[in-house]
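PROTEIN DESIGN WORKSHEET
SECTION A - STRUCTURE
LENGTH: 231
TOKENS:
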């Protein structure tokens, strides 16, 4: 049973890596420049262990509780990424578990993260989350807010601002996600005149190939990895 499950996950992982490689070929990119973060928020812990066994080292959770529960269960070389809404009162307990925060979506969180990291003589690698679709349900700085706050964000002593992150609107017709990814890449190009921003964290199960075509260096994939696609 668990051997079967391992095979399902191996096949899903191979398929996703193949799709990443293909999207890279289309744009003459090196597949090694795209990191796959396995989003484990809906996956049972056994599956997380199986992915580790299959060589995955980057795992993403969208809730602090998920990180508290899971980070201690995996070997130390697993890297944990916070990708979801981060309440400031959970920052202190969570940052020792984290390698990367994708979802710096507001000034108060940036300040709280920076203060907690600076106190430990640490600069945590982050991407700043941009909300380019205007959806109220999603966090993130608007284009204008981000341009205004950027100088102050990169000056925060506990943050190592490496790039930008966004989520496209969920679309049946995935081509319609492309303008959001193009917009993030172009915002990055503008802001990178002030501070280097090599990382673009964009693309999920539905739309990661298009995100890679538009320059994603990190894709965050959950359901395509854990779903049983063999049936
Ligand atoms: C859940 C989640 C993902 C992964 O979504 P899937 O569609 O399951 O691949 C990626 N990024 C964020 C911020 C998420 O919350």
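SECTION B - SEQUENCE
RESIDUE ASSIGNMENT:
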């Amino acid at each position: 049973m668990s051997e079967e499950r391992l095979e399902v996950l191996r096949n899903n992982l191979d398929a996703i890596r193949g799709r990443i490689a293909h999207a890279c070929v289309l744009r003459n990119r090196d597949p090694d420049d795209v990191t796959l973060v396995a989003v484990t928020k809906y996956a049972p812990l056994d599956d997380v262990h199986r992915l580790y066994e299959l060589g995955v080292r980057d795992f993403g959770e969208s809730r602090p509780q998920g990180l508290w529960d899971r980070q201690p269960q995996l070997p130390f070389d697993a890297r944990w990424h916070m990708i979801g809404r981060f309440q400031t009162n959970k920052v202190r307990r969570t940052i020792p578990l984290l390698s990367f925060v994708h979802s710096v979506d507001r000034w108060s969180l940036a300040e709280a993260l920076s203060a907690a990291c600076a106190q430990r003589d640490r600069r945590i690698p982050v991407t700043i989350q941009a909300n380019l679709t205007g959806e109220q349900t999603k966090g993130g700085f608007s284009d204008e807010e981000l341009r205004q706050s950027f100088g102050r964000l990169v000056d925060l002593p506990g943050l190592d601002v490496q790039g930008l992150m966004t989520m496209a609107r969920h679309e049946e017709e995935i081509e319609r996600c492309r303008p959001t990814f193009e917009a993030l890449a172009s915002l990055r190009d503008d802001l990178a005149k002030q501070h280097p921003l090599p990382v673009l964290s964009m693309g999920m199960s539905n739309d990661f190939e298009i995100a890679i075509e538009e320059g994603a260096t990190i894709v965050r994939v959950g359901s395509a990895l854990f779903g049983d696609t063999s049936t």
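SECTION C - NOTES
The chain has a mean pLDDT of 96.
The radius of gyration is 17 Å.
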